[in-house]
Structure formats: structure tokens, C-alpha cells
Design brief:
heterodimer; A: alpha/beta; Transcription Regulator spoIIAA; five-stranded mixed beta sheet; 5 strands; 23% strand; B: alpha+beta; Heat Shock Protein 90; five-stranded antiparallel beta sheet
Chain lengths: 119, 156
């Protein structure tokens, strides 16, 4: 059983960069997530939104990959918003402590609105 | 024993058997999805709510991934055996591998230390199982397998 590769679209919304992550988030997502994050560095964004698909499967390997991306955003003093999570994965992200370093928003609209207001 | 009583016992046995499901998976990451798909259907059929089914799916996926990666060390001929049984309002799940098990349970991951590169980003699987299930035990079985036993009660 092979995981379908992640498709990650990168969009600019003012001073915010959106990483629109399609597909399951597992250890196999590391190359695509790292590559997407690296490609945002050209514009040195201070705010990044990670949007997931609500039906995506996320496991501990994927959580580890996300935390490694968060470690980079922390070193670069970037604010991180997360959206598109199911209620279950909102709970999981809270349990593992991701919500100490990233804010979860119910919708992309909420994320864009709240993060635009951050100076 | 009368034929009637024998038929009754056979019927009882059938009812009990209906509450047990066993799966035998290769040690290949991705196949845990088969286990969680089957488990979700089973848990729904016995009355678990959607949020609890999500907890079960994450816990069993993590147990299977640990069994494949750490227990069976990815050996293609080593198998992961999964059994789930619902009895007395309790769902009991066993996930076993051919490894020796853990010498000690890993500490809970500390995300602050991981972000500072002081700890590796590991230990989330066992941490989530313990947080999401009512009970989790790690055992050696009589047939030299390492087994994770998990339990969740059907409430309300």
C-alpha cells in the first residue's frame, strides 16, 4: 500500500504564505513538506498558514515531520497558523503540544483574517 | 445432551465468535490502514461514537506502526497480528509483533525540547495510545511475541 504523494500548493495572501497540503501526513511527507517550506524562504514570510484536508490521515510520523518544520519556523521567528484539521486532529495537536507554537483556526478565512491583523 | 441444547450452544458460540476479529498484516508501513478501516467498522457496529472511533483508529495505527518499525524491524516475512474483541461493553485490542518489546516505556515527548533540537522527535505513538485509550499494557506472550493490549469501554 503506497501513500499518494502530497501535493502542496503555495499561495501568497498579502504578507502571509499559505501552504495548502493535500494528502495524508506521515513520515513519507518529509521531502514534500520540507521542499515546500524551503521554497517559501525566498520571500522571507513572517506569517505562514498550513492548511490540511479534513479527511487526511495524520500519524505520529507526520506529527514528527510537522514539528521539524515548526522548529525551523521558530528559528526564523515566523508566526504559524493551522487550519483544515478535523476535531480529532485538533485534539491530537493540542495533546502533543503543537498548539503552544501554532494557532489552530476553524477555517482558512478565520486564519487569514486573524493573521493579517498580526503586525 | 439434547439436539436442541446442542444447537443452542452452537448458536451461543456463534454469537461469541461474532465479537472477535483477527487480522494478519505484513510489516509494511501503510498496511495499518487496513487494520484501522476494519476496526472502525467493527467499533461502529457495536455502538462506539465517532470521536471514540477516531481515538481507536489513531491508537491502533500507532501500535501497528511501532510493531512494523520497531518490533519486526521492517522484516518482510515478519507479521503483525491484530485482534479485537467486544465483550461486556469493553473493546479489547491486541497488536503483536515478533520483537522483544521495549526495555522501558519511552518518556512523554517534550515538544519544547524537540523544537530546540535537544530531543529527537520520537515517542508520540506510545504517548497517544496512552492518552486516547482507557488502558494500555505491553506484554510478552507465551508464543514469544511482543504484544500491546489496549482497552476502551463503551460508555453512555
Amino acid at each position: 500500500m503506497n501513500q499518494r504523494p502530497n501535493e502542496i500548493k503555495i499561495e501568497s495572501h498579502g504578507d502571509i504564505i499559505l501552504l495548502d497540503i493535500r494528502g495524508d501526513v506521515t513520515a513519507f511527507s518529509e521531502p514534500s513538506l520540507n521542499s515546500a517550506y524551503t521554497s517559501t524562504k525566498e520571500s522571507s514570510p513572517k506569517k505562514i498558514i498550513l492548511r490540511f484536508e479534513e479527511a487526511s490521515y495524520i500519524n505520529s510520523g507526520g506529527i514528527a515531520v510537522l514539528i521539524q518544520v515548526l522548529a525551523q519556523t521558530r528559528r526564523n521567528n515566523q508566526k504559524i497558523g493551522i487550519t483544515g484539521l478535523s476535531d480529532h486532529f485538533k485534539k491530537i495537536f493540542n495533546m502533543v503540544g503543537i498548539t503552544k507554537f501554532a494557532t489552530i483556526y476553524p477555517t482558512l478565512k478565520d486564519a487569514l483574517s486573524a493573521m493579517s491583523a498580526i503586525s | 445432551m439434547s439436539d436442541f441444547r446442542l444447537r443452542e450452544l452452537r448458536a451461543e458460540k456463534t454469537v461469541l465468535d461474532d465479537q472477535t476479529v483477527e487480522l494478519n498484516l505484513p510489516s509494511k508501513i501503510g498496511y495499518e490502514r487496513i487494520a484501522i478501516g476494519g476496526l472502525a467498522a467493527f467499533a461502529k457496529s457495536v455502538g462506539f461514537s465517532s470521536p471514540r472511533i477516531e481515538d481507536l483508529k489513531t491508537s491502533v495505527a500507532e501500535a501497528c506502526i511501532n510493531a512494523m518499525q520497531h518490533g519486526n524491524k521492517g522484516k518482510p516475512d515478519a507479521r503483525v497480528l491484530i485482534a479485537f474483541r467486544f465483550q461486556e461493553n469493553t473493546l479489547r485490542i491486541s497488536v503483536s509483533d515478533e520483537g522483544d518489546g521495549m526495555k522501558t516505556e519511552p518518556p512523554d515527548p517534550d515538544i519544547e525540547r524537540i523544537l530546540e533540537n535537544l530531543d529527537p522527535p520520537v515517542g508520540f505513538g506510545v504517548f497517544l495510545m496512552k492518552r486516547l485509550m482507557d488502558k494500555v499494557e505491553f506484554n510478552r506472550t507465551s508464543n514469544h511475541r511482543h504484544e500491546v493490549r489496549m482497552m476502551m469501554q463503551l460508555t453512555g
